[in-house]
Structure prediction request, 145 residues.
Amino acid sequence: MDESTLGWLPVLVACWMKRGHQKRIPTPGQQQWRHLFGADNWVTDEVICQVANKRNSETFIAFLEHLVQQHSLVLVLDNGSIHHSLASQAAFAVLEDRLLPLFLPRYCSQLNQLRVWKYLKAAACANKLFAYMDAVVASVEKILH
Prediction:
């Protein structure tokens, strides 16, 4: 399980262009954010993703509730602050019959198997200007499904 953030401003990556001509990517103005919560089903190799306007304990718990609707699960988590909040700990206690949280060692987030965000953002958003934030989210969801 992991989280990431999407911004409305374009994601810039290296690309080919004619010598002497620098590619220009316009920006929409004021930055906006959406937050992705994702979990990897190791059995089916499916990534389950949910988009939220905020990244906090409340939206994290909503994602947990979404996950446990289908199956009981073991959830491998990094040590993000929202995973250790009092609200999250209470949710773990309420969901203990359907959810077993396993925390990675501190400062070892590279051990998290769900590290697709960099590739997802490159495929869905790189060097593109979107008319509105929901178009960014739609582009990401199209890649995921």
Observations:
- The domain at 2-13+28-144 is CATH 3.30.420.10 (Nucleotidyltransferase; domain 5).
- The first strand starts at residue 2 and ends at 7.
